[in-house]
Amino acid sequence: MDFTFNEDQIALRDSVSRFLMTEAAPELLREIWETDAGRSPELRAKLAEQGLTAMSVPEAHGGLGLGDVDWALMTQELGYYAISDSLADTAYVAASLLSRLGEGHPLGQRWLPRIADGTARIALAHPVNPWAADAQAAELVLWAQASDRGLALHALSPGTMSASALPSIDASRRLAALSCTPTPATQVLGADEAQPLWDETLDRAAVNVAGQLVGLAQRMLDLSVDYVAQRKQFGKPIGSFQAVKHHLADVATKIEFARPVLYRAALALAGGHRHRAALVSHAKLACADAAWTAGRKGIQVHGAMGYTWEVDLQMLMKRAWVLDAAWGDRAFHKARLAEALLRDDAPLGPSVTMN
């Protein structure tokens, strides 16, 4: 299997990385998060200029028409620079769902061009992920209504729902619990048609979160490496101590094992692989484990100061904690993976790995 990215993909990733390095510095993000809205329209507009909001929008609606494998690179950058999760919710997950409604669908016709130009903010609510990020600020919420026949798709505007704010340990998160009464006017698709779309959307959202977790893990490792190179004890940088080296080597190993699993899941999602759900759950678990390990080891080498507001590590660590449970917690994904592995046609063995 070839996980080599082409020159265009690498160039786009590097361009976004350079932009975020200067425009989304930690001190700027802290200022944004301390505002009432917790969001910066100016930063969102600049991200749109970089083409990030248009990636999943079809070319017919002013987008780039890119897919899941391209986003496997971009979500790592969003995680690395601690960009709010609702950006990818709108530009990746929601855009992909709207695109799959079919060409000419009025909902897609209305919202996809606005996603491409960065002027729309869309939230998603699903039984697996009922606390919708940015629902209070969203102009549209794509809501999965559970029924005996499956999940229907409803499009909710601010006038058809109420959103109650919920606290989060992550200062960047703006979570809300939704309350609404579904009506035929809000329903986009019934359960029979919407269930396959929601299954795909759940997997896409989990891959989105997994990519951000890998990016978070890499940033926490980089911060820890920088810190141990400067912090001295007994006249030596603490990074020269074998125990510290072992901590950081554990993190590097977790990240290196998580990345190919993430790319395999993105490829399975893009190609409609029959074992997609198992591959996605594997990726979510592996990437979450890498981020948790990076946070834990980072705190160990930073000491108690790693928890303080002034140190960037705490921003990333808290984000990793909350994303670990987003779009399916570990119990959910372990159960899905176990179910797949215990079937007669379980995706096991070298021949499956290469397909």
**How far apart lie the N and C ends?**
8 Å
The share of residues in extended strands comes to: 5-15%
* Coarse structural class: alpha+beta
Instruction: Please outline the major beta sheet.
Output: 4 strands, mixed
- Encode the helix/strand succession as letters: HHHHHHEEEEEEEHEEHHHHH
Query: Roughly what percent helix?
Result: 55-70%
pLDDT averaged over residues: 90
Give a count of the beta strands, DSSP E runs of length 2 or more. 9
Task: Describe it.
By secondary structure, this protein is α+β, with helices and mostly antiparallel strands. Helices cover 56% and strands 11% of the residues. Strands 1-3-4-7 form a 4-stranded mixed β-sheet. Strand 5 (162-166) and strand 6 form a beta hairpin. The radius of gyration is 20 Å and the shape is globular.
In short, what is this structure?
The chain is of the alpha+beta class and 355 residues long.
What topology does this entry show?
Elements: H1 7-23, H2 26-33, H3 41-49, H4 68-80, H5 86-99, H6 106-117, E1 122-125, E2 132-133, E3 140-147, E4 150-156, E5 162-166, E6 175-179, E7 187-189, H7 191-230, E8 232-233, E9 236-237, H8 242-271, H9 276-302, H10 312-325, H11 330-341, H12 350-353
Parallel strand pairs: 1-3
Antiparallel strand pairs: 2-6, 3-4, 4-7, 5-6, 8-9
